Amino acid sequence: MANPSLAAVGSGLDIPTLVKQLVAAERKPTEQRINKQGTAATAKLSALGNIKSSLASLQTALKDLVKGAGAPSYKANIPEGSGFTASVITDASSGKTTAIAGNYSVEVVRLAQAQKLTSGAFDASAAVGDGKLSFSWGDKTLDVDIAPGSTLKDIAAAINKAADGKGVSATVITASDGQHLVMNAVDSGTKGALKVTASGGNGGLSALTWDGNAGGMQQNTAATNALVRVDGFERESATNTLTDIIPGVSLTLTKAEEGSKRTLGIAQDNTSLKINLQAFVSAYNATVKQLGNASAYDATNNKAAALTGDSMVRGLQQQLRNTVSDNVNDMKALGLAIAKDGTLSFSSTTFDKTLADDPSAAANLLGENGPLTSRMATLLKSNLDSDGTLTQRTDSLNKQIKKLEKELDNLDARMEMVALRYTRQFTAMDTLVAQMQSTSNFLAQQLGVSQKS
Questions:
Q1: 30-64, pLDDT tens digit by residue?
Q2: Across 285-379, where does the E strand assignment appear?
Q3: Which of 44, 61, 76, 434 has the fewest CB atoms within 10 Å around its CB?
Q4: Model pTM?
Q5: Which of 250, 278, 190 lies closest to 226, judged by CA?
Q6: Cβ neighbours of residue 88 under 8 Å, at least 6 residues apart?
Q7: DSSP string covering 178-196, please?
Q8: Is residue 3 scored above 80 in pLDDT?
Q9: Positive/negative CA dihedral, 337, 340, 344, 348
Q10: Cα–Cα distance between 371 and 374 in angstroms, integer?
Q11: Is 203 helix (H, G, I), strand (E, B) or coil?
Q12: DSSP E strands, 380-445
């Protein structure tokens, strides 16, 4: 740019100011063009970003809808006060269940129990014995070394450390007659029943043995298997939770009531599907409104939106309308209606009525191969993928903006050269004027001397 310290010598012109004004006048048209194009490109990029975000939300809602429609959900209905609870098992990865709608007669005959063994009374400070206690349950065994001089608390601690929560746990109960060692089988049912033998040492550990029928310990609670009758068929279980007696249902027994039969009902549950469908409708309507706002024209203020008249937006709007309108009858049966502005509404009542008559109606239209969802999934993918229409358009605008930024940098460099050229030209002119003024003054002086002579 011009050096502001330069001053006119002979012409009287303010060269820095004049250069600045000339450069600004030459810069203005190009700068205005670049800024105008940059503002338009940035506005389009922002509008496309909003559209892309809206379509991505619609795609997520669509995936949830397809997953829910393709894998019907069920719920268990149980009379109040039943001696059991039940829940439908759903695979975490696929969201599907093997449950089938129907009613089952359930009678809880017996609950599974874990064995409990108790010892006789010992003084808290008494050394019980030493050697080795060996536990067996099912096909498992555990050996616990008991140090000389061990009290009941020492023995309980040694058992718990060696067992580490598996097979057996031990605790000490302090009663009026002294302390008692309590051995609890960790696993319920007959497979978890404990046998305890002692070996080595001073023989004191024999007071803590149990061979399944007798021993130094007493059996307070015997190990028993659960027994349940479903539709008259009996089933024993080592635990009170059975996951394979009724397909896709987890049954947990809570109270034995032999002779009392309760009805377990498994029915289709459309709650989550309706939630997913309403979420899809909301996402679809948000997309329709976003596309409309991006391409609207304000006739009152004679102002266009960033993408008014854009062919890509018009095409996307038309494709969305065609996708839903081509399935209008099936959608209506499921409670989906299209408004004049292209948005959707959802009637939960109509949806429930249709699925009560035809449980497969939702899967047929909204499942993975449903005509509505499959077409929309293809449409969204073609726009949102890395090589999709929206992505390509966004990349193109980003390149345009970078190009305009480069043009501004080039304009700055070019204007510096222009300012330097103007400064040199005006300085040269001013120098020439100063020289001419000096010559003129010299001649005037000479003429004055001549006239005097």
A1: 888 888 888 787 878 888 888 889 999 999 999 99
A2: 297-298, 303-304, 336-338, 344-346
A3: 434
A4: 0.66
A5: 190
A6: 73, 74, 75, 76, 97, 99, 248, 249, 250, 266, 269
A7: EEEEEEEESS-SGGG--EE
A8: no
A9: negative
A10: 6
A11: coil
A12: none
